[in-house]
Amino acid sequence: MAAELAARGHDVRVYERRAAAAQPALTELDGYRVERVPVGPPDVLSTAELVPFVAEYGRWLAGQWAGDWTPDVVHGHYWVGGLAAAHAVRATDIPVVQTFHSLGVEQLRHLGSRYGGPGERIPLERALTRAVDVAVAQCNDEVDELTRMGLQRTAVAMVPTGVDTGQFHPDGEAAPRDQRPRILSVGGLAPGHGQDDLIRAMRLVGDAELVIAGGPPAERLDGHAEARRLRELAERAGVAEQVKLVGAVPHDQMATWYRSADVVACTPHYASAGRVSLEAMACGVPVVGYAMGGIADAVVDEVTGKLVPPGDVRTLGVTLRRLLSDNAGRFAYGHAAVDRVRCSYTWERTATALERLYERVIGRRRPAPPIEPTPVEVTPPVEVAVSERGPVEAA
Description:
With 395 residues, the chain is of the alpha/beta class. It has 2 domains: 2-158, Rossmann fold (3-Layer(aba) Sandwich); 182-344, Glycogen Phosphorylase B (Rossmann fold, 3-Layer(aba) Sandwich). Helices cover 39% and strands 16% of the residues. It contains 15 helices and 14 strands. It has helices at residues 2-7, 47-50, 54-65, 78-89, 104-111, 121-129, 140-148, 195-205, 225-237, 254-259, 275-282, 293-298, 313-324, 327-344, 347-365, and strands spanning 11-17, 26-29, 32-37, 73-77, 96-99, 134-137, 156-158, 182-186, 209-213, 243-247, 263-266, 287-290, 305-308, 391-394. The model is unreliable at 374-395 (pLDDT under 50).
């Protein structure tokens, strides 16, 4: 998003906390700047460990913006980044746009006891909704959730995430595979990501392999608690020979894994953006996913893939089996999936929507210019072209 906005002539500066002593304070990337904030220890911290540094982060940003460069708008990402952004601008008239990417109250509802977020997250997210000008939702379910949290519908904008179609496309190298049909699942190895549903469903799929990409690097999977749990589940279900965990895959290599699959299965118990389903569709692979969140928005049932009720393992297994045996259906779904992404989910479309949103919130905050009295004499017409490309801020 930052690269696309910068290419349009905006001055974009991205701020992230310095998480390693060796990280440079400033990096130039694709036309925008990444500035690393020296707040907290130079180490990777959990979300809960970041919360005590939010106010300090905000004060550092405010100090930076008190000099020669001040943003026209600040865009906060995730709830901790949003809190820092709101803290930084509280004594100014700079508007704040906020993308949560996920909401604690919705994760708690879907994950129940498996929800592992810090206790202060949900009340702080509610407070943040009252401090921002507009909240950006990435799917229709998130729009509904934000309004239930107290935001007026006019203060919520739906802007789906984008896909880099230069990286994710049907043509190119595919990861090695054997002769069996391949189902690919992509996501972190943590309770609630739905890999256990897929493993149980494999009993109904037949002779196919399930490849699970995500989690720690492959060499560390043996010591990972969730990886061990999933392998034990596969043993008990009698499908251990069909389930393969490959560990973390660099994002720039993910397209090869998508292209190697016959079907990509998206079965998380909570998903706001549906990024995996969109990347798979951009690669021409049909998606079978749970009908919820960003997945339900991205996948058109019976057009680009199949949607099944969340948690319905039997229907999931039967749907996968039928689609794997339907070569013509998968071909048609794959072509329609590519068209859908290229028409509706490119970063260009996302950036255009955000540009309009930024202009709207800036216009609300800026005072109207004084009305000058109209002169009596007639003056010749003058053509004026005004192009405003002020700084856009991401925190």
